[in-house]
Amino acid sequence: MASDDNTISVETPRGPVRGPQTLAAGLVMLALAGIALWALGGLSSGTARSMGPGMMPRGLAYMVAACGVLLLVFGIIRQSDPIERFSIRSPFFVLTGILAFALTIRVFGLAVAGPLCLIIGGLATPDARIKELVIFAAIMTGVCIALFRYALNLPMPILIIPNVIYI
Amino acid sequence: MSDMFSNLGLGLSVALSLQNLALCFLGCLVGTLIGVLPGVGPIATIAILLPITFGLDPTGALIMLAGIYYGAQYGGSTTAILVNLPGEATSVVTVLDGYQMARQGRAGVALGIAALGSFFAGCVATVAIAALGAPLTRLALVFGPHEYFSLMVMGLIFAVVLARGSILKAIAMILAGVLLSTIGTDLETGESRMTFGLDFLADGIDFAVLAMGVFGIAEILRNLDTPETRDVVRAKIGRLLPDRDDLRQSAMPILRGTVVGGALGILPGNGAVLGPFASYTMEKKLAKDPRRFGRGAIEGVAGPEAANNAGAQTSFIPLLTLGIPPNAVMALMVGAMTIHGIIPGPQVMTKNPNLFWGMIASMWIGNLMLLIINLPLIGLWVKLLQVPYRLLFPSILMFCCIGIYSINSQPIDVMFIAFFGLVGYTLLKFGFEPAPMLLGFVLGRLMEENLRRALIIARGDASTFLTRTIDTTAFGQPIGIPLSGILLGIAVTLLVIALLPSVRKGRDEVFTE
């Protein structure tokens, strides 16, 4: 950012790296390009006259890598924002909630997968209240079953208890 | 001219069918319902609600989606006025004077003038789309693969220039999006590319999964990181209808906002985002007493809101006529159309006149409905704004899971929204904006296809993009216009200008004001 130069309050990071966020962004892009090139393996690029399946992705990967290198260079010579703190709690619970839904929807149905996702996901914030969440999950699941299964008619099992019940 | 009206008549007959009218209403309603939630912008709203339209016929689905889009936009303005929280870039400006008006007990008037301004802008923009639709489509029909490829390059460069933050990062995001689009089976050779041997990647990354992960889930994660400070207006909402003085003060700003917003919205790249900023700056410059701005000036709400809505609507023009989405919202529309088997582009108007004109007519009806549903329901929206985020986000999470599962009944899709959510969150942390990535992803396949075709025609000579001409006649003389080269030239010029230090500084100011 051009305006950063005039502000006084920005703390200058110590060490040779002046823009840690930009530097990290460059590394992310290089990693992406690296994975793409590795995944492309020996896919033929063909010629300009008849492009092979590998030409466009490979060209793009090189361009992404070039952006990565530029970001690296800018990260070293130019000041940028510091890297924001990553929280562990919210991604952990949110992603676990989604995975719980994915793993249970086919086996037990929406009546189990829905509340599971909502309660586990709801724990992502420190001010979660478990009792409130449980009651809220029950209501929301009812609403969703009525809305998605009956009003919108989407195919989706509601409740499965193996060998006993299948709605 | 008479053509235009008969076309609009056809459109109205489609849009006014009972089913489509109901879908338009439902779309506006749920769009506002989700869009009004703090921290959920129009892109996230459409991504979350996309699956519920998949069961409908294509015309109905698109009418509903358009309704969802306007609803989400209007919901965002409501949040901006009542909570001092801009849902997305285009309602940033509304916050400035809208929230001040709300604090002075004039929230109702602010909401009312926003709705009226949007409605007026919507009416004008609908006519503009209808008028420009046919001629632009004819132009698009002379486009060959060269011109299409160059046009998409230009659109992507526009999107880069107009994206917030670092230009280099925006370029990286677009390239990454195009790169993601090449995953899956290559259509021409049948070879699988970058699938890691996984079956579900054989058809490429599912668009809805990517959008919901990067916008729905990543937004939740980002919001959870910033402790919530929600300041719902406590003052009375007050009367909704603006009085004579209000109307007199806002009439010209609405008119100017409509023109500015509509004109910017047609630009490829995200032109619509500039409309509200331009309108606000203009009103401030024209005002007799500019000090009123920022302290609850009604012009500061009326103009930008009209510009916002006009731009939202005219940004359909490049999509409907050329088949090229100018921004992330339109990219979502392309995704929805493709799922219904409609390839956006000039042929839609000739092959599917019902769909094309029906959708345009439904835009006008959608705007009318927003006016009708929003004002009486304002009490409900205020209640909704008071639901704490600790209960909101788990519900959104569950909606996302159910929605994505309902498309293909594949648990693996659900797992992938978690994966892309994490990817999106990481990108946000490193200062990347995910919207250009989605645009690149949607345009990627079209670009590769057209690039290949153009190179085959030119026998591998890449200079064809600069030299190829389109034959036409001007003043009775046959001439050739190097359209593809001109488009690329505009793109390069624009990029160079945006990289000039002085312009860069101004660009930063526009987005931080």
What does this structure look like?
Chain A is built from five helices and two strands. With 167 residues, chain A is an all-alpha fold. Chain A folds into two domains: 72 residues; 78 residues, no CATH class. In chain A, helix 1 runs antiparallel to helix 2, helix 3 runs antiparallel to helix 4 and helix 4 runs antiparallel to helix 5. The N terminus of chain A is likely disordered. Chain B has 513 residues and is mainly alpha-helical. Chain B has one domain. In chain B, 72% of the residues lie in helices and 3% in strands. Chain B is built from 23 helices and four strands. In chain B, the strands form two sheets. Chain B has a two-stranded antiparallel sheet with strand order 1-2. In chain B, a hairpin with a 2-residue loop joins strand 3 and strand 4. In chain B, helix 2 packs across helix 3 and helix 8 crosses helix 20. Chains A and B meet through helix 1, helix 2, helix 3, helix 4 and helix 5 of A and helix 8, helix 9, helix 18, helix 19 and helix 20 of B. Chain A: Keywords: Membrane, Transmembrane, Transmembrane helix. Chain A: This is Tripartite tricarboxylate transporter TctB family protein. Chain A: Pfam families: TctB (PF07331). Chain B: It comes from Salinarimonas soli. Chain B: Keywords: Membrane, Transmembrane, Transmembrane helix.
Shape of chain B: globular
Main β-sheet description of chain A = 2 strands, antiparallel
Q: Uncertain regions of chain A: pLDDT < 50 for 5+ in a row?
A: 1-11
Oligomeric composition of the shown chains:
heterodimer
**For the terminal residues of chain B, how far apart are their CA atoms?**
42 Å
Helix/strand order of chain A: HHHHHEE
- Cα radius of gyration of chain B in angstroms: 22 Å
- Radius of gyration of chain A (CA) equals 25 Å
